[in-house]
Amino acid sequence: MEMQEIREEPEKTAEDEGATGPAPEVKAEEEAEPDHYAKLHNPSEDVYSESYYQPLKAAAAAAAERLLWLPSPPAGLGCQQCATGWLALGRSCFYLSTFRLNWAESQRNCSSRGGSLAVVGSHGVQSFLTEKGFLKYWIGLKNEGSTWTWVNNTVLQKSYWADRPQEGDCGILSSQQPADRNWIRASCHASSYFICQLHV
């Protein structure tokens, strides 16, 4: 009788006791299951995704284009209230000209910009325009008969006439003088710089 070699089984541990069936085999990389996710990207899916996303891209582009063409009067509300070259004060924008015209031409020029010659309705506006200007400017004040009226057809209430306002039927704000007394009179046919006002 020949002796057979008895193989010893490795001792079972607590981890092995839960397994009842044969242990799963670990496959080598070559034998691993094929990657099904790789099949998801094929030309027919590209057609689907392009047909799905193209309208979205077009809609986004159209929305962006509309944002570029928002109508903006001289100002967009928010940080910048007035157009370039205009100065903001409250709900008004002011433009101090860099060229001279007579009073009527100045009013027409302001109208073409969407406004009128400036109406100084408060001490705040008077001080602001005096501080920002460096010259003599037409304002929207004219003598009609014996009454000084603004271009918006209101009668002058509070005035800032200089001690010697000179002669003439149209009003000028002289920013070279103190704000309390810097209005002078001039012939409406004389040429001067001017201040436009636009309400926003």
TrEMBL record:
Residue ranges occupied by any C-type lectin domain in the UniProt entry: 89-197
Xref: InterPro entries: C-type_lectin-like (IPR001304), C-type_lectin-like/link_sf (IPR016186), C-type_lectin/matrix_domain (IPR050828), C-type_lectin_CS (IPR018378), CTDL_fold (IPR016187)
Entries under Gene3D superfamilies matching the protein: Mannose-Binding Protein A, subunit A (3.10.100.10)
Topological category with respect to the lipid bilayer: Single-pass type II membrane protein
Pfam families: Lectin_C
Location relative to the cell: Cell membrane
PROSITE patterns: C_TYPE_LECTIN_1, C_TYPE_LECTIN_2
Keywords: Disulfide bond
Classification via SUPFAM superfamilies: C-type lectin-like (SSF56436)
Top-level taxon in the UniProt lineage: Eukaryota
GO cellular component terms listed in the entry, alphabetical order: plasma membrane
Biased composition regions of type Basic and acidic residues, renumbered to the chain: 1-15, 26-37
Region described as Disordered: 1-37
Database matches in PANTHER family: C-TYPE LECTIN DOMAIN FAMILY 4 MEMBER C ISOFORM 1, C-TYPE LECTIN DOMAIN-CONTAINING PROTEIN 180
Protein name: Early activation antigen CD69
